[in-house]
Amino acid sequence: MSYTINAEIRTEIGKGSSRRLRHEGKVPAVIYGPGKEPVAITLLHKDIINIQVNEDFYTTDLTIVLDGKEVKVRAQAMQRHAFKPMVEHIDFKYA
């Protein structure tokens, strides 16, 4: 199964801006990999929370639509809230 996720580039980096994003229902994330610059992005929480339940989310290549371009990535790490069903941060690696 293939997953397509819409994302936006994030310009503000840091704890305060990440908290503001989470209050707006968004998830801060980053895409990185060898030979490429890391890109800070934001995703909608409602898009991620439903598809991350599937176990093939972690093993297959995902497509992130970023400014009209499709970027192939793979989920590397995910940070969840301690007791709430919330995703707090995701690391993606270029596929």
Automatic annotation (TrEMBL):
Keywords carried by this UniProt record: Ribonucleoprotein, Ribosomal protein, RNA-binding, rRNA-binding
The keyword Ribonucleoprotein is annotated on this UniProt entry: yes
Any one GO biological process: translation
GO cellular component: cytosolic large ribosomal subunit
InterPro entries registered for this protein in UniProt: Rbsml_bL25/Gln-tRNA_synth_N (IPR020056), Ribosomal_bL25/Gln-tRNA_synth (IPR011035), Ribosomal_bL25_short (IPR020055), Ribosomal_L25_dom (IPR029751), Ribosomal_uL5_bac-type (IPR020930)
Top-rank taxon, per record: Bacteria
Pfam families cross-referenced by the UniProt entry: Ribosomal_L25p
Domain Large ribosomal subunit protein bL25 L25 residue range list: 5-92
Subunit structure comment from the entry: Part of the 50S ribosomal subunit; part of the 5S rRNA/L5/L18/L25 subcomplex. Contacts the 5S rRNA. Binds to the 5S rRNA independently of L5 and L18.
NCBIfam families registered for this protein in UniProt: PRK05943.1
Function: This is one of the proteins that binds to the 5S RNA in the ribosome where it forms part of the central protuberance.
Protein name: Large ribosomal subunit protein bL25
Species annotation: Shewanella maritima
UniProt gene name: rplY
